[in-house]
Specification:
By secondary structure, the protein is of the alpha/beta class. It contains 7 helices and 9 strands. Bound molecules: iron/sulfur cluster (SF4). The site of iron/sulfur cluster (SF4) has 14 residues, from loops.
Length: about 220
């Protein structure tokens, strides 16, 4: 999701040519761009300003199946043992939770030492109220999760991220962060510099016992 991590990490990726890229590289990681759907409409979303980053067009013509994603990813994994794979693109990846679980399972089978991370807007409890998404991700093999907290309170989050789930969204994100901490080995929250009260957000992250990043 282009906000957590990607929207905030300014484009300095190596060039590539594919239109609607499903797989793209950034520094030492491989990124998977699996959807353009999102439950937010953040004021800072990079999708408002450009079709992609670093030469990659990230507007997908259609969503690839788990099989196609894994096949495209596999082309990049020959001889690779230590790269990180990140579900993060021009949309919210957890909208396709089952695809993430399937691709993660396949990667862990073929490359057990490769780490997988999900970058998310943290709205899993609203997307899947009857599922324990954090546990499902962990059971599939996800090693870390980065959640866009983006604000120090509900009012600010609502104004900045304009979530389709309404004003209660922020509280559900905090619940999800706590749930992730119970299950996923590495949990980090992030905020976009220049928008949130960084000091207060870091205090909340510390209170939650998770990592913190300004992007
Ligand atoms: S959460 Fe959605 S709208 Fe917000 S920055 Fe990420 S992709 Fe863009």
């Amino acid at each position: 999701m282009f906000g957590e991590s990607c929207a905030g990490e300014e484009p300095s990726m190596i060039a590539a040519s594919a239109k609607g890229a499903v797989v793209y590289r950034y520094k030492h990681s491989l990124y998977l761009n699996i959807t353009n759907e999102c439950t937010n409409d953040c004021v800072f979303c990079v999708r408002k300003f450009t079709r992609g980053i670093g030469g990659y067009d990230l507007w997908l013509q259609s969503e690839a199946s788990a099989d196609v994603i894994f096949r495209e990813l596999s082309k990049e994994l020959d001889g690779v043992t230590d790269e990180e794979i990140v579900f993060c693109g021009y949309g919210e990846p957890l909208i396709r939770l089952d695809t993430i679980l399937e691709v993660t399972g396949e990667v862990k089978k073929s490359h057990p030492n490769i780490k997988l991370r999900v970058n998310t807007n943290g709205q899993a409890k609203l997307l899947y109220p009857t599922r324990n998404v954090a546990k499902e991700l962990k059971d599939a093999g996800v090693d870390s999760i980065s959640i866009s907290m983006n604000a120090e309170n509900s009012k600010k989050y609502f104004e900045m991220c304009r979530p389709k789930f309404g004003r209660a969204t922020y509280e559900k994100i905090i619940e999800f962060i706590k749930e992730c901490k119970e299950h996923i080995p590495e949990v980090r929250v992030s905020v976009v510099g220049g928008y949130a009260n960084i000091v207060e957000c870091e205090r909340i992250a510390n209170e939650l016992g998770v990592g913190f990043k300004v992007r």
